Amino acid sequence: MERTFVMLKPGVLPRRIAGEIITRFERRGLKIIALKMIKMDEAMTGAHYAEHRDKDFYAKLAEYTVSGPVLAMILEGPDAIAMVRLMIGPTSGAAPGTIRGDYARQTRLNIVHASDSRESAAREIPLFFRNEEIIPWEDGNESWF
Ligand code: CMP
C-alpha cells in the first residue's frame, strides 16, 4: 500500500466538478484516508512548491494557488503515486482520458496536483495533514484488487 497527496486546485470548486474528480479516484479503487478544504497562503504555497520557487512561472502559479479554496486529500492504494499521476496526465499536453486532459485542452493553471514521487509524497503529506487527521480504514475491498 502506498499513500499519495492530491490537491484539487482553486479552479475546481467554481466549476462544480470536485465530486466528478473525486469519483474518478474512487472508481479506480483508491481510498480517501484524509480530506479537507483549505485556503492556502503565500507561505504554504512557497513550502509546497519549493522546487519551483526560482522558476519564471512561479509568480503566476502562486497567484493561482492562493486565489481560492483547495481540496487537499491523501489517497491510498497499491502504487498510488504512479497510478494517480497516470490518471491526471502530464502538466503539459495531457491526453483526453486523463483528468487534466478531460477538463482542459491546454493550461498551466491545471486543476489537480499530485505527488510525483515517494519523496514528494513524504514531504507533502505532513505539510497539509497532522497525523490525527489521517484516518486509515478497512472495508474488505482489498480482495478485489
Ligand atoms: P503541479 O502538478 O501542481 O506542480 C507544479 C505546477 O507548476 C504544475 O502543476 C503547473 O501548474 C505549474 N507548472 C509546471 N511547469 C510549468 C511551466 N513550464 N509553466 C507554467 N507553469 C508550470
Would you spell out the secondary-structure blueprint of this structure?
Elements (H helix, E strand, L loop, with lengths): L1 E7 L9 H10 L3 E8 L3 H7 L9 H8 L4 E8 L2 H9 L10 H5 L8 E3 L3 H11 L17
Antiparallel strand pairs: 1-3, 1-4, 2-3
The chain binds adenosine-3',5'-cyclic-monophosphate.
Give an account of the 3D structure.
The chain has 145 residues and is an alpha+beta fold. It has one domain (2-130): 2-Layer Sandwich (Alpha-Beta Plaits), CATH 3.30.70.141. Helices cover 34% and strands 18% of the residues. The protein contains six helices and four strands, in the order βαβααβααβα. It has helices at 18-27, 42-48, 58-65, 80-88, 99-103, 118-128, and strands spanning 2-8, 31-38, 70-77, 112-114. The protein has a four-stranded antiparallel sheet. Bound molecules: adenosine-3',5'-cyclic-monophosphate (CMP). Adenosine-3',5'-cyclic-monophosphate binds next to loops.
Keywords:
single chain; 145 residues; alpha+beta; Alpha-Beta Plaits; 4-stranded antiparallel sheet; 4 strands; 34% helix; binds adenosine-3',5'-cyclic-monophosphate
Summed up, what is this model?
The chain is of the alpha+beta class and 145 residues long.
Point out poorly predicted stretches: none
Intertermini distance? 11 Å
| Share of β-strand residues | 15-25%
Q: Which overall shape is indicated by the principal axes computed on the Cα atoms?
A: globular
